[in-house]
């Protein structure tokens, strides 16, 4: 899963102010990123670069973690043992992605605890897509196909993002994503080749996940004021709108192959542009979800906090076991 | 001085953007000297742009005699690989 960098107050789309950095060091830094050099934890970096990365990487990590919830919803109701094993393996990968990314963010001086706290108290954001419910089994297919598909579109260029630990985490993640998308598409193939009811479930899943998937790429370029700087610093390698278009162009033929209808009456191939044209996106809905008003936003955070609280005794037991053994070592 | 200096494991980053890779070890009395020895031992021909040294006795390793039960469980989970899924030619690149 992926999240584009969302400002906490995304709806006012303010430019994050650049702090006062030493001009000589700043110039050297700018030259390095312009030359596609990688920045490592011990290198000098502008404070705004560090802050932007902490926000983007922690949001990305949170998205991987919260992204397990809509899929976990179907684990005990998967229609076969094989589908259950596949879904479990995919969810396990997403947990791993969260861990790679939290570790990478920690190299910027933010602690795991701070990030988890920010997620749980609602001050941190995660991808809007996970605040939509998973209502039928075909949603699991649609998520793999569309949501992981959109994530791949975003994550492939991030393998060349300028911050070394982030780029390396992305390389590891991208290697694992192909399975996620393929199992989803294959699941959709089974549904469309099944009974009329199953076909209808597949279409219903596409209807509900299409627009939220397009929103995953973040606000339109003219409403994302930090894009220019993020591109200059090679934090981002493509704009939101470019990636969104790429995703539409790649996905529409796949929907046709499944015999499903993309829920957009204005969708058509534009010969001149060499791209699909599509309807404007309902950005009001997007900003509402960013503000935490998504259909199942509260449920997600409750489930997250409950999992954290219910696991507290395990963390405490492990810590007290270690304390006991440490004092035994000192005594010995 | 009767005992050896402690052992340090050496990791080299070959180029910007790559992970540090383990290349070997050096003996040194402290971290600073370990870095210098590592430079002279492992990067005489521009093998790297960054070095890490870690005290060898700080590393916990898995037990080779338990390798089977440790890693075997992944062997049967072939559905973790993209090639497990048979897709039409049009979407083979997915
Ligand atoms: Fe992801
Ligand atoms: Fe992921
Ligand atoms: Fe994924």
List keywords for this structure.
A: 332 residues, mainly alpha, 64% helix, B: 94 residues, alpha+beta, 2 helices, 22% strand, binds fe (ii) ion
Description:
- The complex is a heterodimer of chains A (332) and B (94).
- Chain A is an all-alpha fold and 332 residues long.
- Chain A has helices at 23-34, 47-66, 68-72, 81-106, 112-120, 138-158, 164-192, 196-215, 227-232, 240-258, 283-293, 297-310, 312-331; strands spanning 268-270, 275-277.
- In chain A, helix 4 (81-106) runs antiparallel to helix 7, helix 6 (138-158) packs antiparallel against helix 7 and helix 6 packs antiparallel against helix 10.
- Chain A is globular, with a radius of gyration of 21 Å.
- Chain B has two helices and three strands, in the order ββαβα.
- Chain B has helices spanning 31-42, 67-71; strands spanning 7-13, 20-27, 50-55.
- Chain B has a three-stranded antiparallel β-sheet with strand order 2-1-3.
- In chain B, strand 1 and strand 2 (20-27) form a beta hairpin.
- The complex binds fe (ii) ion (3 copies).
- One fe (ii) ion binds next to helix 4 of chain A.
- Chain A: InterPro entries: Aromatic_CoA_ox/epox, Ferritin-like, Ferritin-like_SF, PaaA, PaaA_PaaC.
- Please give the order of strands in the largest beta sheet of chain B: 2-1-3
Protein chain pair with the most extensive contact, residues per chain: A-B, 23 and 19 residues
| Order of helix and strand elements from N to C terminus of chain A | HHHHHHHHHHEEHHH
Please, how many helices of chain B?
2
User: Uncertain segments of chain B of ≥5 residues (pLDDT<50)?
Assistant: none
Largest sheet of chain A: 2 strands, antiparallel
The mean pLDDT of chain B is: 93
What is the radius of gyration of chain A computed over CA atoms, rounded to a whole number of angstroms? 21 Å
The percentage of residues in β strands of chain B lies in 15-25%
Percent of residues in helices of chain A: 55-70%
């Amino acid at each position: 899963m992926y999240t584009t960098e969302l400002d906490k107050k995304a709806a006012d789309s303010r430019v994050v102010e650049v702090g006062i950095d030493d001009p000589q060091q700043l110039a050297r830094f700018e030259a390095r990123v312009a030359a596609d050099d990688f920045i490592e934890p011990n290198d000098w970096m502008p404070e705004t670069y560090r802050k932007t990365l902490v926000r983007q990487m922690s949001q990305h990590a949170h998205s991987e973690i919260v992204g397990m919830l809509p899929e976990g919803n179907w684990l005990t109701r998967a229609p076969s043992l094989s589908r259950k094993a596949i879904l479990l393996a995919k969810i396990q990968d997403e947990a791993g992605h969260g861990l790679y990314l939290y570790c990478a963010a920690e190299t910027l001086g933010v602690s795991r605890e701070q990030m988890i706290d920010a997620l749980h108290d609602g001050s941190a954001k995660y991808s809007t897509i996970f605040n939509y419910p998973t209502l039928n089994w075909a949603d699991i297919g649609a998520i793999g196909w569309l949501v992981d598909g959109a994530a791949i579109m975003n994550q492939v260029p991030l393998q060349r993002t300028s911050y070394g630990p982030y780029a390396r985490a992305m390389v590891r993640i991208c290697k694992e994503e192909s399975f996620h998308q393929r199992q989803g598409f294959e699941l959709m193939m089974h549904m469309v080749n099944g009974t009329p009811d199953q076909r209808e479930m597949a279409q219903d899943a596409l209807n509900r996940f299409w627009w939220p998937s397009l929103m995953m790429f973040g606000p339109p370029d003219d409403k994302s004021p930090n894009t220019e700087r993020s591109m200059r610093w090679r934090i981002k390698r493509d704009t939101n709108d470019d990636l969104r278009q790429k995703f539409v162009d790649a996905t529409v033929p796949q929907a046709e192959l499944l015999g499903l209808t993309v829920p957009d009456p204005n969708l058509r191939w534009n010969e001149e542009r060499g791209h699909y044209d599509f309807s404007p996106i309902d950005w009001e809905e997007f900003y509402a979800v960013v503000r935490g008003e998504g259909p199942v936003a509260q449920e997600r955070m409750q489930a997250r906090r409950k999992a954290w609280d219910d696991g507290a005794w395990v963390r405490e037991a492990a810590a007290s076991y270690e304390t006991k053994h440490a004092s035994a070592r000192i005594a010995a | 001085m009767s005992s050896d200096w402690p052992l340090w494991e050496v990791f080299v980053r070959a180029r910007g953007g790559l992970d540090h890779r383990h290349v070997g070890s050096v003996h040194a009395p402290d971290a600073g000297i370990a870095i210098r020895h590592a430079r002279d031992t492992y990067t005489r021909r521009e093998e790297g742009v960054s070095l890490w040294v870690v005290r060898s006795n700080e590393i916990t390793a898995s037990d080779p005699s338990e390798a089977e039960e440790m890693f075997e469980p992944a062997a049967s989970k072939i559905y973790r690989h993209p090639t497990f899924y048979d897709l039409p030619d049009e979407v083979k690149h997915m």
